[in-house]
């Protein structure tokens, strides 16, 4: 398994997608910084804290910018063997197909964790600059660490719910379909992210679960957890099953 993970990492070294994904997730800290400056100059009397900035960024991290990037990464990892026509050299190798797909999922997971750390650090550094220039109430590493834990928890849930896109990338043998579907889901998420109905929409339900809003929607928490687990289980099962049946 470790050798398979190492091979996936070596293949990524030849690609620009790692660098591009890091640049992509840095858009969220930049947006938070610009929003903080705009709020200060338009409403100088308004007081907000580091926790407020992280709380505002959660929408971009879980439902918008970062989510699209994670889907793009998933589509890239699971379609590249088809687009680069390397599958015919992989299938004859005496390697467990289950391990091969597991290695891809593990690389995807660690990639998401890395980008989560980049996003969190970007927000913290830009907030520190804001704090030096203007002053920010409640700025402290303890607040930052608390939100890092929330970010990691939230992005773990995202990892679970993007497994259907991995299957779609394998099924279509392309990058485009998963990204288009992700765009539609993002539009739906943006539309109901402020409504209680979001508790029934798996990708918004994860957002509610992290920001503590899920229990106040009036819907049973167990129902939301079930709706989150269904697409996750479907994605993992179908991805493994499809590749197990793959033939030259």
Task: Describe the 3D structure.
By secondary structure, the chain is mainly α. The protein has one domain (17-244). 77% of the residues lie in helices and 0% in strands. The chain contains twelve helices and no strands. The longest helix has 37 residues, at 97-133. It starts with a helix and ends with a helix. The mean pLDDT is 89.
Give the helices and strands, then pairings.
Layout: H1 2-13, H2 17-25, H3 27-42, H4 50-62, H5 65-83, H6 87-90, H7 97-133, H8 141-161, H9 163-172, H10 176-192, H11 202-211, H12 221-244
Structural class: mainly alpha
Helix and strand string, N-terminal first? HHHHHHHHHHHH
Q: What gross morphology would you assign?
A: globular
The average pLDDT is: 89
Distance between the termini: 23 Å
Number of β-strand runs? 0
- Unreliable segments of 5+ consecutive residues: none
Give me the Rg, rounded. 20 Å
Query: How much helix is in the residues?
Result: over 70%
Brief overview:
The chain is mainly alpha-helical and about 250 residues long. The protein has one domain. About 75% of the residues lie in helices and about 0% in strands.
Descriptive terms for the model:
globular; 248 residues; single chain; 12 helices; mainly alpha
């Amino acid at each position: 398994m470790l050798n398979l993970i190492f091979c996936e990492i070596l293949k990524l070294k030849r690609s620009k997608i790692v660098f591009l994904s890091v640049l992509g997730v840095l858009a969220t800290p930049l947006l938070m910084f610009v929003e903080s400056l705009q709020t200060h100059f338009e409403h100088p009397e308004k007081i907000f804290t580091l926790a407020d900035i992280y709380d505002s960024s959660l929408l971009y991290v879980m439902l918008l910018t970062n989510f699209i990037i994670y889907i793009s990464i998933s589509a890239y990892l699971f379609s590249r063997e088809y687009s680069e026509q390397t599958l015919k050299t992989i299938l004859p190798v005496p390697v467990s197909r289950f391990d091969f797909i597991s290695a891809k999922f593990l690389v995807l997971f660690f990639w998401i964790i890395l980008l989560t750390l980049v996003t969190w650090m970007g927000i913290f550094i830009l907030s520190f600059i804001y704090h030096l220039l203007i002053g920010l109430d409640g700025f402290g590493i303890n607040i930052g660490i608390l939100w890092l834990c929330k970010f990691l928890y939230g992005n773990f849930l995202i990892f679970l719910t993007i497994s259907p896109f991995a299957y779609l990338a394998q099924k279509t043998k392309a990058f485009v379909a998963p990204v288009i579907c992700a765009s539609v889901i993002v539009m739906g998420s943006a539309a109901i992210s402020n409504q209680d109905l979001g508790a029934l929409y798996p990708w918004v339900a994860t957002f509610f679960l992290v920001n503590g809003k899920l229990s106040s929607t009036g819907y049973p928490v167990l129902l939301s957890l079930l709706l989150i687990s269904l697409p996750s289980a479907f994605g993992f099962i179908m991805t493994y099953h499809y590749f197990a049946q793959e033939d030259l």
